[in-house]
Amino acid sequence: MSGPGFVHLHVHSAFSLLEGALPLGTILDMAKSDGQPAIGIADTNNLFGALEFSEKASGKGIQPIIGCELAIDFGADADKPSDRVNLGKGSIVLIAADAGGFANLAELVSRAYQEGSGGHTAIHIDWLVDNALGLLCLTGGPEGAIDPYLAAGLDAQAEARLSVLHRVFGDQLYVEIQRHDRALENAVEPRLIDLAYRLDLPLVATNEPYFPKQDDYDSHDALLAIAAGSVVAQTERRRLSDQHHFKTREEMIALFSDLPEALENTVEIAQRCSYRPRTHDPILPKFAAADGVGDDEAVAAEGEELARQAREGLRMRLADYGHAPERTTQEYEERLEFEIKVIRDMKFPGYFLIVADFIKWAKAHDIPVGPGRGSGAGSLVAYALTITDLDPLRYNLLFERFLNPERVSMPDFDIDFCQERREEVIRYVQDKYGYEQVAQIITFGTLQPRAALRDVGRVLQMPYGQVDRICKLVPNNPANPVTLAQAINDEPRLQMMRDEDETVAELLRIAGKLEGLFRHASTHAAGIVIGDRPLQKLLPLYRDPRSDMPVTQYNLKWVEPAGLVKFDFLGLKTLTTIRYAVDMVKETGVELDIDAIPLEDAPTYKLYADGDTYGIFQFESPGMRRALVELKPDRIEDLIAMNALYRPGPMDNIPSFINRKHGTEKVVYPHETLAAVLDETYGIIVYQEQVMQIAQLLSGYSLGEADMLRRAMGKKIKAEMDKQRVRFQEGAIRNGIKKGQADTIFDLLAKFANYGFNKSHAAAYAWVSYQTAYLKTHYPEQFYAASMTLDMAQTDKLSDFRREAQKKGIEVVPPCINRSEVNFSVRDGRILYSLCAVKGVGRNVAEHIVEIRGDRPFNDLADFASRIDPKIINKRTLETLINAGAFDLLNKRRERLVEVIDTIVNTAQRETSGRADGIVDMFAASQPQAIVPPEHVAPWSLTERLAREHAAIGFYLSAHPLDDYSELFEKLRVQQWSNFERAARNGAVAGRLAGTLISRQDRRTRKGSTMAIMMFSDPSGSFECIAFSEQISDFGRWLEPGKSIVLEVGADSRPDGVRLRLINCEPIDASVEKLGRRMTIFAGNERCLGPIKSQLQPGGEGVVSLVLVRDEGEREYEIELPGQFRLTPQLAGGLKAITGVVDVRLN
After folding, report:
1. Rounded-to-integer distance, Cα 238 and Cα 257, Å
2. What kind and span of H or E run contains 571?
3. pLDDT tens across 750-773, in order?
């Protein structure tokens, strides 16, 4: 053929979410192999891939044509006869012919999301009047804006629509013809061609491919079923054909041989397109320059402002905090001027000023800001501007690790804010720079192997259990993801299931083809971009339905090449925890400046040395705690080093680091001159900055060159490494080091550069950790209350914090409608449980109770009922609060309170209705009628009361089911979990425990046998135990949630904790019965004798004495009851609850 013959103009890439199955790389590879000189993508309602496609296509020597398939609203469309008539997607294809056309296309796509009609993403026909210039228009094909009307017999309306488009686009409009051998296309094509000729409109042939090859049709059909929430077998849903694959030029030329003009026009359109999106240098709003000045003048003005603020800021920092030891004012000033010059030369002063501005605003509004994150903490200018709070000279942090004049790239400050107030800072930035100039960054969720299997299994209508079993055989490790093909290759059971069941084989095949495709669009958790103009003039915008903030249509990888600068606004929970704790400390009258606490506080370091770091930022894992006990840190440098070392790779150096600190291992340096660099880490290379300093010291590298060396070592590019090795050798030899030793040191640096940690980041986070440890040491009640508030949704953590508090003698008081606040709080040295942390009690309920309570506690149930709003507090909420113990202060008998829930709600409704109507009952008493719980209600046993409490709170708070047995633990030879855990870490391999089973998960082992993962609780905490098939068979009847049992376990101490496996067990009551018991019941009157008799169960080995108390305790009559009885602590608890029983003693 002469010339291209055909050019694809309407290709759906994978960015047509849950519709296109053609990744950009696949499109370009297929186009390249077919010799296609140009290709056009037109994704559904988006330009997500425009810049990426443009760059990658041009890199392969292919002309990229950027288009978009956009739904269009023609306004008052009274021409649709019925909702049953399928009028397709109602879209047209707009193609950018020049720069103005792309700007208009970006504007239209952005408006479609920002202003789309009726909540749908669509453009309005009126918008095209001002935005059609530079755009070519195709009519959209069989699912477009014209063809479905012809198919429905609405020829007049089709012609009217086409005429409107013709008026708008003129000779830039093409009538799109597709041939997939479908009935609709065959019926419409003659009339469509006739209509085009009649209106003198050119035809254009397209294929609209959605998937690569013809045999990919069934997997793509499954994708469409997933998108529709339907199933493959459903006929009444959108379907395509196997002809919607990516056809070659030869196939298309043969297909349209009878319409050569339609083929020629594809080439004509490609020739009319003279534009592609390109990458752009960073564009920032002008911060300190007047409007209208040129770029050079703006950078100069911002440079002057940066220098002024930095110099003034440094003077204030030195006045407030002084110099680092052995540093002079001159050193600070010289470092500052060097950094200012680099920043100005690289034209980044505006970036620093923008970041400093919103951080200063946040601090001025008492919004906690982190001390720094990442390499930015190495900048003295950042410290002077209060962007960071770590003195880089004090910690030997390097500016070049952050901003290297020899490697021009944008600086990147990651800023941590209090997670609850981060949005306020973002709103400030929006207000300052304009709503249209600030946006979030899009991200794309992909179909991961397990998700693909579940989705495909659903649309194939496979049994859920079968799909679930298959999914669980696919590893799910985000840190080391495994493809479905790898999973099948590594798992014989998957291979066997595939080979034995055709349906499973089909599931795996289809899921394998869909794996990795984009599933949905979302927003980056922290990234924000700020522009110097409305952002849709720089790139297209999207809107996340969950936010009112614009979102870029390019993802994180492509938003910066598009010219936008990213700022990371991260929410750090620990900062919120610190704020809560400091606020509670201030309530005690102590003014605590958490940023000015002493760095040499011995009690705080003792907390680290004792391994008492549960809840301490970055230092709470079991392995870290053990390392701290061995290290005994006594300075901030030890914490920085441990923060850097405790990760895979560097962790191997922890034993040497500890031994060298304590003098049990000799400190050795790779070269004697490196003592100055490696002294603080005892001769061990821990930080990337040390790699840079060693290159500077031994081989004469500038720090900028040393940063390039570090990056080369990290990337392990051989050619670059060989080049750097020669450079390192030559410099070392000039400094008197032998070539062999230089080689050895270079190899050592290469090893550590790969996994050495960024010291700036480690230092900043060690400081945040130290702040939390200081609070835990000196203000433990406030620390625990704040930590529990931030983790109130995680009952396991709440239970752990409560246990930690108990160890320090701090009581956690159960929830109470008269004492508790919305969050956890501290009063009289005790932690008051949060109302909001009770399960099923939302924040609005907790806030309502606290608000109406005010400074007047509720006197009784009637007082409570008369004040609440029954629309906020319903019956279920009341029952949950009662079960949690929140009404115990008014009446301890929870079973009686449950009986009057309806009365409470009815009273609340009556009182609320009266207030709303303005009705006052003149005959009513000033106080509401008392609500008296009934007396004759069967008492809850301790087991039932605590089971209800556990359901409401998530753990046992007011008591524990085993409390009544605790005095018998010694006789039962039972250890509490906290004691046994300590023993296991010291070498114990077996033990005997008592526990109440909280939860049980049954699973299959790799061999197919049953195993159970069980969570138990005892008064000292909770622990996990595994039972295998033999134990499940022998003891399964007792291993049910809520049962209390005595367990014999084997123990295996590992770095991540103690693992337990079940050996033997029996119900705790059975163990108790074997002891032989005596129970003494003290009865105050005759009325309780009947209930006592009904609860006593004969047949055991225990003896019961009944003591009748007379004359207010003046006289007692003791009677030993005949026979023997089954005696348990649970029975004792139940008897105590009987009205008239004074006491019950079990000996």
Report:
1. 29
2. strand 565-572
3. 877 767 788 999 999 999 999 999
